[in-house]
Specification:
disordered N terminus; about 0% strand; disordered C terminus; mainly alpha; Growth Hormone, Chain: A
């Protein structure tokens, strides 16, 4: 996967009361206002440079990026390792699908524990358990254990915490009351997601091919544990735990927050765009005898999203959040038509790569605005759980999009398969239109 200001368009100037007295901006325990004052000293610098003048921000970001890189490595490594050893892509796909389903069930529960007891206290043992699951999978594949052990081992990796959500929760804690800086932080985090999911599969494929089939899983597990330990060690920037929520409270669970269920359905549709695009592009490249180039082509889509996310974070956010969200969803729906047109009109993988680069430029701004809305809707003290629910919606959508596009490719061809992400993006736009402005509705009922 917050504490948030009013969803009405906030002033970009932080409200620093002169009666608060001078605060030491180098003190990591100082209030957010002192952090804002420190950032304002570098007013002529770019917003990302100012972002990392917050004490401790650079340290927890480095650890989190190391921990996040393996998220793009595990599935590719598992498929390569299992298919190479057992000679069955069907088995490899079933094992990874089981892990995805287990993650969807376990991740919100893990995030709830993180909010309740603190990031370091929960994330470290949860990560250690997930790493043991990865090592168990490696050993079961290596020594020819029964197939059921592969499913059990990979399902055990579901306890891995949502490292991206924990990082966003820290930004929300440190930048509370500074909407512009939080917009930049959320944009940076989305660009980091894209970068990790762009580099992760490439690194995994290289390690499995150049060294040995288990190398990708082994390196990913080591990076995950190292990164989480480094991240958890930065205690001064960690949001305070909020303890157990009153069971009688109707606003305790993020799922009960007004507007959240509808927003999660939009995340489901957005995830379907990602899942469908990956499967269809792999099939399209394979049809034309360029299977090895598929990873590079998909990386261009992630690169377009990463670049757009960084640019989006550098600009001054204008207008109500809901209007920005509608514009981003409309742009994604429009740009997702480009790969379909490129595939149908030219049949060229090079032209398709350019179309995917352009199409990816709408996904990061869409995700940034959606995650910002999640932070506004999530009740106090449930930040990690709220953002993990959003990621769970994405994972469910990825699975649905992959299944739908796989059927379409098999029965209608890879070119026609590009209609699936177009339809999914259209659904995301329609659901956004029908959902109204959940943040405004939440304020009207006093629940934001």
């Amino acid at each position: 996967m917050p504490q948030a200001p009013s969803p009405q368009a906030p002033s970009d100037a932080p409200d620093i009361s002169p009666s608060a007295g001078p605060a030491d901006p180098t003190d990591p325990t100082a209030p957010a206002a002192s952090h804002t004052a420190l950032r304002d000293r570098g007013a002529r610098r770019n917003p990302y440079a100012r972002l990392f003048t917050v004490p401790g921000a650079l340290a927890f970001t480095v650890g989190n990026l190391i921990a996040r890189l393996p998220m793009g490595m595990f599935s590719v490594s598992a498929v390569t390792m299992i298919a190479g050893s057992r000679g069955s892509y069907a088995l490899a796909g079933a094992v990874t699908a089981t892990g995805l389903a287990a993650t969807a069930l376990v991740a919100p529960w893990t995030a709830r524990l993180v909010d309740r007891h603190g990031q370091a206290r929960v994330a470290v043992p949860a990560t250690a358990f997930a790493v043991l699951g990865s090592l168990s999978l490696l050993l079961c594949v290596r020594y020819g254990a029964p197939d059921w052990t592969l499913f059990a081992s990979y399902a055990a990796t579901a306890t891995v915490p949502n490292t991206g959500g924990m990082s966003r929760a820290r930004w929300a804690h440190l930048l509370k009351g500074d909407a512009r800086a939080l917009h930049t932080a959320n944009s940076f985090e989305q660009a980091a997601d894209e970068l990790c999911f762009m580099l992760g599969p490439v690194l995994a494929a290289f390690l499995c091919g150049a060294l040995f089939p288990e190398a990708g899983t082994l390196v990913a597990a080591a990076l995950l544990l190292t990164g989480v330990l480094l991240f958890a060690a930065q205690r001064t920037t960690e949001p305070p735990p909020h303890g157990r929520t009153d069971p009688a409270s109707k606003t305790g669970s993020p799922l009960r927050a007004r507007g959240m269920p509808a927003l999660l359905v939009v995340f489901l549709a957005t995830g379907a765009v990602f899942g469908a695009m990956e499967v269809v592009t792999l099939a399209y490249a394979d049809e034309r005898g360029h299977k090895t180039a598929a990873g590079l082509v998909l990386a261009l889509q992630a690169a377009g999203s990463c670049a757009a996310g960084l640019v989006f974070g550098a600009v001054r956010p204008r207008g109500p959040l809901h209007r920005r969200r509608l514009l981003c969803a409309a742009a994604m729906a429009a740009l997702m038509c480009l790969p379909l047109l490129a595939a149908a009109a030219t049949g060229s993988l090079v032209v398709l790569a350019g179309a995917l680069l352009c199409a990816g430029m709408a996904t990061a701004p869409t995700m940034v605005t959606a995650m910002t809305l999640v932070q506004k809707l999530t009740p106090e003290g449930r930040t990690n759980e709220g953002m993990t629910l959003a990621v769970t919606g994405l994972l469910g959508g990825i699975a649905c999009g992959a299944a739908a596009s796989g059927w379409t490719v098999e029965h209608l061809g890879a070119t026609t398969g590009y209609a699936v992400p177009v339809a999914a993006a259209g659904c995301a736009l329609l659901l956004t239109l029908l959902g109204g402005d959940p943040a405004k509705e939440a304020v009207s009922t006093g629940r934001a």
